[in-house]
Amino acid sequence: MEPLSDRNLPAIACHNIRTEYQSTLQRPILNGIDVQINHGEFVALLGMNGAGKSTLLRSLVGLVPIQQGEIQICGTSVEQRHIGEVRKNIGFLFQGGALVDQLSCLDNVLCGCLGELTTWQSLWGFPKSDRRVAMQLLQKMGLQEQIYQKARQLSGGQRQRVAIARTLIQSPHILLADEPTTGLDISGINQVMDSLAEMHSRGLTVVVVLHDLALATQYAQRAIILDAGKVWYDGDCQNIERQFARLQSLSQFQSANAA
Ligand SMILES: Nc1ncnc2c1ncn2[C@@H]1O[C@H](COP(=O)(O)OP(=O)(O)OP(=O)(O)O)[C@@H](O)[C@H]1O
Fold first, then answer.
1. CA-atom Rg of the chain in angstroms
2. ipTM for the predicted complex
3. Which of 20, 53, 210, 232 should be mutated for ligand 1, with most atoms under 8 A from CB?
4. I need a surface site. Which of 21, 57, 128, 193 has the fewest CB within 10 A?
């Protein structure tokens, strides 16, 4: 990870962000989000289905057009002309990891630095230094035995840890993970969350979308709960079950009144 030019600037700052109006929802998907996340935080992003969690994560890397407001990543505005710089600071972990099944774990991790290769390197393959870093990352993820194994032979938890290593080879300051534990059994869930916690302890800022409140309480320091494209709760993880119960009764009350 390259040192940050100014660690006092927030890792992520969203000022009143609003996306396009959605006629099916009768509102914008994100509807005035104001959030600031500092370097070194571990944040769980929570909310019911359709609340806007994935849209918020995607907007942070410029994958969703913003109609109003501003997003800054490490002080840089998320705009087309700065998108390269923004994405250098952020690693994005998609649901399911999206590995290439026919490639080894090592080659999957090396795919994370494809965008950085010079023309010469793309002719001659990845430099030794990249291969060394990829191996070290796989070792850190507890996958030293699987370095040359094809991705199709891995368990769900192992796949997701390869995907984390692929994200980390870009040395990001921030890791965004969209439901990284979906479809995993208890041991896979623990492996993935422990890997995120380990990287967090080394200074990475982590924002992870979760549906499991117990996991959020166990791993995150801060919870942000979205509802209908707005921040419903932003605070510590101690009372999130109570916050969710309040949110559910409010939605039931609103649906009963609308009927
Ligand atoms: N590309 C898109 N085009 C149109 N509508 C979209 C698009 N992506 C998401 N939406 C809508 O925006 C709303 C929020 O979706 P989003 O995926 O951000 O929610 P979420 O909180 O991540 O949900 P889940 O927990 O189900 O993954 C949903 O109503 C969804 O249908």
1. 19
2. 0.95
3. 53
4. 128
